[in-house]
User: Fold these one by one.
Assistant:
Number 1:
Amino acid sequence: MSARYSSAIFVIFFPAIVALNSCQQLSPPLVIPCYGHVDSISYHFDTLLIKENSKWSDITDAWVYLDNNPVGAFQMPCTFPMITGSGAHTITIYPGIMINGTPDTRTKYPFYTYFTETVNLTQGKTIKFEPSCTFTSFAHFAWMEYFSTGCSITKNNIMSDTIMTRVTNGGYPYKCYGSAILDSIDPSHYTNVYQGISDTMTLPKDGATAVYLEVYYNCNAVVSVGLYESVPGYALPGQQLAPVTYLFPTGNGWEKMYINLQSIVAANPKGEPFTVYFEMYRNSGTTSPTYLYLDDIKLID
């Protein structure tokens, strides 16, 4: 009787002992990460018109690589872990942006240079990086407007009740900028809609080449941004395409947006040359003027 009882106990508990030993054998060793920290990515760009600094950019994210392997994309300021041993490693950081100002659509900006540095990492320790960037050597500027010497945005005579004028008394970094105002106070100058258009331009339509419109803006109404395509039988600027995105009221401050035009250009391969438009309607129910201010416009491919 006791022999059978002892055997039963062994049969019941032997699998549990084996499982316990197996768990102990399969447990991975504890890995202590190395850490990196980035407060921001600075930006500089020298032109004949103006020297730009980080006030003209809106780099929100750091896309981090460790020895050419992706670590992750992090909204700055950020501290990030890197699973590696202590020693010399190469860290590469790409500037990241929000596409069309949308937090859910983020990407490495293809026209900014990346930062790379070989450093000695220590497990459990944090090293701070101070990346900087400028435009890549292959960035092609199809259109640039700083309003330093004039205003290249003209009104669409069919659509617009008013024009964009050049303001010269702005404060740094907006010493000069473009201003379009829809006046709802003076009945003799009553205006309801504004549409400003750029000169025509040829853009890559292969669907693989990045095309971005950078714009600084300050507005108190919703502004549509899009393209006109040239179509036989239509007078220039051509046929208006649906808006690519919208500029929303900024609360009397300036904001930056990177607008992706790659898809709309590729979807209209016969639409060359293209023209950029900005369109807004007067705010109803208020006596305050509706305004749109623009600066530092770049169309890059």
Note: The chain has two domains: 34-133, 141-300.
Number 2:
Amino acid sequence: MSQSDPAPAGDPGDMSLAERAEARADAVAQRFDKSDWIELVSALLLALATISAAWCAYQSTRWSGVQANAYASAGANRQESVRASSEYGAQVNIDVAVFMAWVQARRAQDADLAGFWEERFRAEFKPAFDAWLDSVPVGQIPPGSPFALAEYAPASRVLAEELERKAEDSAAEAREANQTGDNFVLLAVLFASVLFFAGVGTKFKGYRVRVAMVALASVFYLVTTFLVFSLPQNVGI
């Protein structure tokens, strides 16, 4: 061919940069048919679902630890509450015994004996006793007893009630952590469904069936991922 002869049509030397890029894109497109795109999406779903299921398993384990710690705290607080309640019961018995001795001395009109017992009132009982006496004129015995008044509040009873509240709060935290862990287990099962549909869907011969299975897997993955982020996350090292 002489130098004066024109170059053949379609010679790469006559193609512009844009035409070359378009030609390469067409070549890549020809390498992938419709089934290849389904395989690619399926592989992506399999990878994402595997990682997500592992994350759910990790979260379930973390929340199981929170549950165990909360139940342990609830048990310890209840044990201390029982101990404080026992101490409170012993103090009430002492207060009742001394108070009844005082009442008997007053009925016997023995002022010295009544004064003797009054001096032996516990410091936590004295405010309630004084408030009880002040409810009627001097010299009279009021109805009821000081133990029904708000002024009678031994520290051991207050401590027992506080510890019982803490125990209930810890138990509620444990139940919530248990439910959260169970939710993550359920989500891991849903991610396993994504693995099933994405993996099995590519094995069918029909193109529409493949598309339907991969689409179903995609919907499962998106919904389950949304549910994962709607739950509290617990991360630790």
Note: Helices lie at 17-31, 34-107, 111-118, 126-133, 155-201, 207-230.
